[in-house]
Amino acid sequence: MSNFNRLNEMKALYRQEVEQRRQLYNTLIELRGNIRVFCRVRPSFDPGASFDMFEALDENSLAAKLPNSTQRNYQFDRVFRPSARQEEIFGELRDIITSVADGYNVCIMAYGQTGSGKTFTMQGPPNSPGVNIRALRELLRIVKGRQRMEYKLTIKRVQGVNLNLFSSQVSMVEIYNETIVDLISPSNGCEVLDLRNLGATVTVVGATWASVETEEQIHQILARGEKNRHVASTKINSTRLV
């Protein structure tokens, strides 16, 4: 058997193995639950307070203690205590990032009242990044690893042919007062977008997508969008008030 035929056989076996791993991995994710709900208890605003309304009983249970001495218990897929670190939060989400690279749609959403810690959990400070940065960092790592493997299984690059199997793009939109705004548009976050049903898919039409290859590029786009978020919100408010 020639080296060329042997290489083609290795490539076929590798891709077959990848496909089997992908199916088994995502079957496991589905068994854990396509929808998972986590609860993160934020530290008290007053460290010296003698009464904490919420208490994590274990990894899956949360107790809500009311002033009248009654208590209600709630169940979640995972409960994080106030001492939980950002790394611990993302550790419970890392597996679904692999599913993104496998072609599955994934949504990670933080929900809570003002001051509950959504921004800290999702964005975080530079020295302790949140879910957003960690998820994109992990996705880039997976993509680069798979690109390197495919390159090693190719004898040589064919001139003029792009052998990249993945491309990474980022968009950033804001929903404010039922209006969708593109935060990284060339018009500096002032472009209002439409939400349309295209067959079985709901799509934000006209959103700007920026190609990224490095974490630094992601930071730049997120910083730009975060800056425009406040500007866009102010302009929408003023328009509606008038």
UniProtKB/TrEMBL annotation:
<dbReference type="GO" id="GO:0007018">
    <property type="term" value="P:microtubule-based movement"/>
</dbReference>
<dbReference type="InterPro" id="IPR027640">
    <property type="entry name" value="Kinesin-like_fam"/>
</dbReference>
<dbReference type="GO" id="GO:0015630">
    <property type="term" value="C:microtubule cytoskeleton"/>
</dbReference>
<keyword id="KW-0067">ATP-binding</keyword>
<feature type="domain" description="Kinesin motor">
    <location>
        <begin position="34"/>
        <end position="242"/>
    </location>
</feature>
<comment type="similarity">
    <text>Belongs to the TRAFAC class myosin-kinesin ATPase superfamily. Kinesin family.</text>
</comment>
<dbReference type="GO" id="GO:0005524">
    <property type="term" value="F:ATP binding"/>
</dbReference>
<dbReference type="InterPro" id="IPR027417">
    <property type="entry name" value="P-loop_NTPase"/>
</dbReference>
<dbReference type="GO" id="GO:0003777">
    <property type="term" value="F:microtubule motor activity"/>
</dbReference>
<feature type="binding site">
    <location>
        <begin position="112"/>
        <end position="119"/>
    </location>
    <ligand>
        <name>ATP</name>
    </ligand>
</feature>
<dbReference type="Pfam" id="PF00225">
    <property type="entry name" value="Kinesin"/>
</dbReference>
<dbReference type="InterPro" id="IPR001752">
    <property type="entry name" value="Kinesin_motor_dom"/>
</dbReference>
<dbReference type="GO" id="GO:0008017">
    <property type="term" value="F:microtubule binding"/>
</dbReference>
<protein>
    <recommendedName>
        <fullName>Kinesin motor domain-containing protein</fullName>
    </recommendedName>
</protein>
<keyword id="KW-0505">Motor protein</keyword>
<dbReference type="InterPro" id="IPR036961">
    <property type="entry name" value="Kinesin_motor_dom_sf"/>
</dbReference>
<keyword id="KW-0963">Cytoplasm</keyword>
<keyword id="KW-0206">Cytoskeleton</keyword>
<keyword id="KW-0547">Nucleotide-binding</keyword>
